[in-house]
Design a protein that fits this description.
The protein is α+β, with helices and mostly antiparallel strands. It has a domain of about 325 residues. Helix 3 packs parallel to helix 12. It is globular. The chain starts with a helix and ends with a strand.
């Protein structure tokens, strides 16, 4: 009996030790398979940065169709001040102040319009002196800007996070409801639309949401709608009526503009670039956005993977069959630490290639061919490292990372991989959760309701504050 008790005690002890060792082994395996790569940089959101490109650019449409900076007397490039930007009006008349418009514009009607703004616009504040301008409820019949932006334009060095979405393609996609739910969780930018009656999913065919650092005050919106000609004017009326403020129409750089009384405290204006195109920006950002459209129009569309576009469409241009794209200008401004393997410009696009799959294509641009080759080796190691992590395998991304292609092409790296519909839903759900958790600390009030008028589809929230950092990508 004593020997039986000893055997039982031994068995119990052995079982406990074996269990501890087994759990330790499992824990060690999981820990080793869920480790983080030792990055020597951190991601950050810069505070002192303005909307711009990686490098300052002065683009001039020459007879040969190429662009280049203006030359000074010594042959060097002339760095023109931002005030001299041509925002898109054909240079067919003597130079005048674009806000005073004292010279007849080639697009202007020769018959006087009783509703038109006949007072010179010398005040940069859109809310100034409402008694001397048009009634906010009157649609002024002032011509829009030309379909093709011409003349020199300059955009300064800065940064840019630009999300472009093909809303028409999204509406027709099986992933439409998932993308719509994700968009409803995008913080802050909806503050710009609340109360205007604009539903970005239903009313727009293309949407651009851009910012140099995700600060709410610096957000830029641009869109192409498929509604009637007076769609933008009606939205301005709704917004002005909801806030109880005037919304006079004025011409800036030959383009119709009006105050955009959004819920945010930042003063913004809407600019009607064509009967279907509009932008919503701070007054000081309008010329930067117009210059960006010119810069994108003059870039090599094929090399950038874009469909060739002109005028306002260049601002919204994407690649063939792309559902969405993310472009980052001035990537180094978002990195703290070693930037050796970080591109200076990055473009990531999602293209539908089947009913249940999509292809992700990234184009990373570096300063030199050598930097691109070194970076391709580095990021292949990163992809291989994470392809072996247990959590990535369980989520179904292990095989995706192992099959990822990273091909250096001169000063660029082209990355491509496939995603299934379930993987896309997983990513959207994850991003939606992150966005909602970021915005949960402070949610602004909803826009006042307007009888018999459409209301925004989603509630706004707030963004992550600039200056916060995150280790690695």
């Amino acid at each position: 009996m004593r020997s039986g008790q000893q055997l039982e005690a031994f068995s119990t002890t052995f079982g406990l030790v074996a269990s501890v060792l087994l759990h330790a082994a499992v824990f060690g395996y999981v820990a080793s398979r869920t480790a983080n790569f030792d990055f020597d940089f951190e991601l950050t959101l810069p505070t002192e940065v303005e909307f711009g490109l990686t490098e300052a650019m002065t683009a001039t449409a020459t007879p040969g169709g190429t662009a280049g900076p203006k030359k000074g007397a010594s042959g060097g490039a002339v760095d023109e001040p931002i005030e001299q930007i041509d925002a898109g009006v054909p240079d067919q008349a003597p130079d005048t102040d674009p806000d005073t418009d004292t010279v007849a514009d080639p697009d202007t009607d020769t018959v006087a319009d009783p509703d038109a703004d006949t007072v010179a616009d010398t005040d940069p504040d859109p809310d100034a002196d409402p008694d001397t301008v048009t009634d906010p409820d009157t649609v002024a019949d002032i011509p829009v800007g030309p379909s093709a932006i011409t003349g020199p334009s300059r955009i300064p060095a800065g940064a840019q996070l630009a999300l472009r979405i093909d809303m028409k393609r999204i509406r027709e996609s099986p992933l439409g409801p998932d993308v719509t739910r994700f968009l409803s969780g995008v913080p802050d930018w909806q503050l710009l639309l609340a109360g205007s009656g604009i539903d970005p999913v239903e009313d727009l065919d293309r949407l651009l949401v851009a910012s140099p650092n995700l600060e709410r005050s610096k957000l830029v919106l641009a869109g192409r709608h498929h509604r009637g000609k007076a769609f933008a004017e009606a939205s301005v009326r709704l917004m002005a009526r909801a806030r109880g403020k005037p919304a006079p129409w004025k011409r800036r750089y030959g383009i119709r503009t009006a105050p955009w009384h959004n819920l945010d405290r930042t003063k913004r204006m809407i600019a009607v670039l064509s009967p279907r195109h509009f932008t919503i920006t701070r007054p000081e950002d309008l010329r930067r956005v117009l210059a960006l459209a010119k810069a994108r129009e003059l870039r090599d569309a094929k090399k950038e993977g874009l469909v060739k576009a002109r005028g306002p469409d260049a601002l919204l241009s994407m690649g063939p069959k792309e559902a969405l794209s993310l472009e980052i200008e001035g990537v180094h401004r978002f990195v703290r630490g070693n930037v050796r393997h970080i591109p200076i410009r990055l473009r990531v696009a999602v293209r539908e290639t089947g009913p249940d799959e999509a292809t992700v294509i990234a184009l990373a641009t570096f300063a030199t061919d050598e930097e691109a080759r070194d970076a391709s080796i580095y990021w292949k190691k990163v992809a291989n490292f994470y392809s072996q992590q247990l959590v990535m395998t369980l989520a179904g991304f292990g095989k995706t990372l192992r099959r990822m292609k990273l091909d250096p092409e001169q000063e660029r790296i082209r990355v491509s991989f496939m995603l299934t519909a379930d993987q896309i839903r997983f990513i959207l759900s994850y991003l939606e959760g992150r966005l909602r958790s970021v915005g949960s600390t402070s949610r602004p009030p909803r826009a006042p309701s307007i009888p018999n008028e459409p209301s925004p589809a989603a509630k706004p929230s707030s963004t992550k504050k600039p200056g916060e950092t995150k280790k690695g990508p």
